């Protein structure tokens, strides 16, 4: 491999795994584009960096989510960008409302949403699966969690696409700047009204739970509430959209799995776990070094932006046997797709639940899915997935 790899090049976005493999083999710690990021590509190095926030600070996320051209972005003040002890304070407060019981209670509603969406998919007729199913499913769930106006779900795709694309938008992409700034303003205005309304008139929803949550007498501030709602709308929506989309794309590529899962629906959860490893939604999270540090014999300078390449770590042959083979019978647990260490994704159980239930509903209705056109991939340093997925479902 000659020259510096550009992680956002169209050919890399379409299939980054050969590039990742070459980097793991020849340059596991190196600089890449855009902007000369340092990239860690081996599982062991990525996991170690996640567990060492003293050196690999989460403030690095802010460098990709709040560039100078954007300025204010509540997402960039969320707990995902914080190190201890501030991170633990926010996570503790949020966790009081975001309980496993609260997530599990959603399953009947998730199934109802999925069934409604699946019934709208006409057998033998082409559809964009992202628009028709993968996006509205988690958007409906977020609306349910927060008791939001159902009419707003149509805006969620634009919100999530705009904010997740910030990391892939350069200073030269001026045509995108105002659109993204407008999205931030629109989200903040709408969600501020929601928070204010829940303070006046609490409901049986998570925003109300977050408003009233106390730990040692301390509550979330309005700014902290706003940052968490931005985090959940962006991270909770975009990553689940990609997980569901990747799942169906893999079923198209390996149709024998459709028959297997239709015959044994109890194995859908196992299938989802291998999708998370084989095609993770999150491919890289940025950290910034607080001091010069050596990784795999390479010295990374202080203040360097470092991309922890989850997408590469999940295909590391030192960690996984035959890593480029999709094997839903693979043994062992792999939590890397949801981060690692103190920032392990709080929404992981919900994402798994939505994907499992959504696939169970789809597989009960359709026997196969046929691709009908090229896939357009998103542009983001963090999340990788299709912006569209044209296909025909067959009954």
Automatic annotation (TrEMBL):
Name listed for the protein in its UniProt record: Cytochrome P450
Taxonomic lineage from the root: Bacteria, Pseudomonadati, Myxococcota, Myxococcia, Myxococcales
One GO MF term attached to the UniProt entry: iron ion binding
Keywords noted in UniProt: Heme, Iron, Metal-binding, Monooxygenase, Oxidoreductase
Any Pfam family: p450
Signal peptide range in chain numbering: none
InterPro entries for the chain: Cyt_P450, Cyt_P450_B, Cyt_P450_CS, Cyt_P450_sf
Native species: Corallococcus carmarthensis
Family: Belongs to the cytochrome P450 family.
Heme among keywords: yes
PROSITE patterns the UniProt entry points to: CYTOCHROME_P450
Domain of life: Bacteria
């Amino acid at each position: 491999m000659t020259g510096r790899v550009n992680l956002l090049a169209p050919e890399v976005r379409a299939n980054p795994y050969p590039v990742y493999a070459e980097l793991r083999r020849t340059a596991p710690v190196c600089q890449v584009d855009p902007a000369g990021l340092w990239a860690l590509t081996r599982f062991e190095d990525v996991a170690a960096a996640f567990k060492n926030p003293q050196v690999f600070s989460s403030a690095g996320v802010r460098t990709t989510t709040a560039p100078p051209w954007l300025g204010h972005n509540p997402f960039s003040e969320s707990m995902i960008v914080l190190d201890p002890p501030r991170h633990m304070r926010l996570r503790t407060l949020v966790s009081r409302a975001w309980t496993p019981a609260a997530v599990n209670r959603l399953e009947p509603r998730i199934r109802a949403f999925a069934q409604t969406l699946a019934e709208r998919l006409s057998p033998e007729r082409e559809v964009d699966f992202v628009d028709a199913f993968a996006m509205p499913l988690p958007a409906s769930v977020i609306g349910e969690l927060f008791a939001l106006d159902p009419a707003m779900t149509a805006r969620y795709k634009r919100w999530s696409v705009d904010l997740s694309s910030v990391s892939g938008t350069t200073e030269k992409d001026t045509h995108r700047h105002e659109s993204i700034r407008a999205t931030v303003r629109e989200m903040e205005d709408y969600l501020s009204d929601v928070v204010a309304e829940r303070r006046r008139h609490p409901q049986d929803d998570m925003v109300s739970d977050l408003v009233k949550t106390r730990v040692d007498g301390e509550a979330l501030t309005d700014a902290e509430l706003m940052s968490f709602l931005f985090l959940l709308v962006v991270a909770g929506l975009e990553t689940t959209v990609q997980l569901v989309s990747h799942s169906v794309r893999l079923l198209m590529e390996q149709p024998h799995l459709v028959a297997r899962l239709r015959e044994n629906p109890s194995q859908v959860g196992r299938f989802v776990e291998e999708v998370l490893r084989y095609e993770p939604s999150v491919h890289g999270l940025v950290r910034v070094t607080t001091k010069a540090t050596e990784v795999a014999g390479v010295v990374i300078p202080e203040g360097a932006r470092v991309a922890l390449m989850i997408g590469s770590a999940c295909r590391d042959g030192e960690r996984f046997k035959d890593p480029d083979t999709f094997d839903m019978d693979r043994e062992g647990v792999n939590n890397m797709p949801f981060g690692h260490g103190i920032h392990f994704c709080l929404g992981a159980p919900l994402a798994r639940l939505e994907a499992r239930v959504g696939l169970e509903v789809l597989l009960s209705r359709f026997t196969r899915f046929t691709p009908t056109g090229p896939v357009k991939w998103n542009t983001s340093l963090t999340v990788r997935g299709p912006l569209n997925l044209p296909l025909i479902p067959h009954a």
